[in-house]
Every structure is written in structure tokens, then in C-alpha cells.
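Lab notebook, bench 4. The sequencing result for the construct came back, and we need a structural model before the next group meeting so we can plan mutations. Quick request posted to the team channel:

Model the 3D structure of this chain.
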Amino acid sequence: MNSNRHRTMTRLLTGGATAGLLIAATATGAQASTTSFAHVTTASALAALPGTAGLPAGVKLIGKVEVTKALIDEPCGSKVDAVPLTGSADVAAIYSTAKSTKVSATDSVWTISEAVFATPAAAKADTIALVTAQTKCPRVQTATSNGVTATLTRTVSAPDTSEKGLWKGYRTVAHLTASTSAKGDRVFGTYFERGNVVVKVEELAPLAGDNAQQDQLRKAVVVTTLAKLDALP
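Done. Here's the predicted structure in C-alpha cell form:
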């Protein structure tokens, strides 16, 4: 992937620690409980991030990280619309379909971030702020960096029902194209909230190819992540 194009994409797509994780990457969980949900700690959230063995075939863990300060999320890729996840402690991981440590433009990349709050009320308040900001994002956004212009066009913005109501979720899908390439990328983003945790799952995948298969992988990664958290004692 062209480095200038990638920097421009990252600027459009993500903010805070999540963006840093996505840049660094280019260098079957248990059944969910329907009755109760544990008070998640930062340590247990980090442990609950799926490993390669728990993910769909062809998807592997690149690395995990614990963030020492609360994330600042940018739902629209702009500091103007930034939402600070105040009072949270955060962990994250990156996964990809790459066969080596070098990710190419034909690979899918997932970033999973988990913000752990002191109380469910705090998690809910920040989720409301995130979704509110997301619903106000322009349908079409452009950004230019080092002569490369990237355009992000949102095609889906709606509630996510991957976990059938156990987690309150919101999903977006967008197409990302750059002036230097005829190819593009599809961007999936989901926010989920339950108890004292907010989970954000992002996927960057080639725009060409089997879209239905990409969406199946996205959903499998999401469900696995949330089921791991549900299974915490």
C-alpha cells in the first residue's frame, strides 16, 4: 500500500491510539450469557481479546497493547468531532489476513479497542456521545496529504444486531478511494456497549472481491470478541 495513501486513509478513518495501532500493523469464544455480565477489569479485558486460535481461519493476531491513558475517538476522522472516552482504561489488538508481518493492500485488517469504565453509567454516556457524533458525520469526506486525495463515502449507518440485543451496537460501512489508485477499500466500524465496557471494532478490507465473505468475517470477529467478554467470570 502506498505510504502517502495509507497516511491519508488513516487520517480519515481513525483517531487517537487506534490510528497508531493501525499504522503499526503495517510495519470460538464461549457462548454469551443472557442473564448477567461481569464487571470487567482492564486486565480481564486484555486477556479477553481473542487470540489467533479463536478467530476465523486465515485471520491472525498481530499484537495486543494496553493504553495508559483514555482514548480520544474521532468518529468522523476529525478533531472537531472528537469524543474523549473520559475515565476509561483501554486495551486494543490488531488482526489481519496477511500471511506475513507485512500487510498489503489485498489483506483485511481489524483493530479491536476495548474501553473499560468504572461504572456502566459512564460507559453508556460515552457510547451515546459516540453514536450521536457518528450519525452526524458527512456522507462524503475528503482529505489531502502529500498530494494524495482520499475520499470516504459512507454507505451504511445503522444499529448493529450481531449479538441479538445483548450488546447495544451501532455499525457504519464506508468506501474509501484515493486519487493515486483505481482500487479502493471498504471500511467497517462498530461500537458496542454492555455493562462497563465499550468495544470498537474496525475493519479495513479491499473494495474489490467477495463483499459477502468480508462481511461474514467482520461479523465472526465481532461475535468472537463480545462472546469472550461475556464469558468472563
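The first strand starts at residue 60 and ends at 67.
Will bring this to the meeting.
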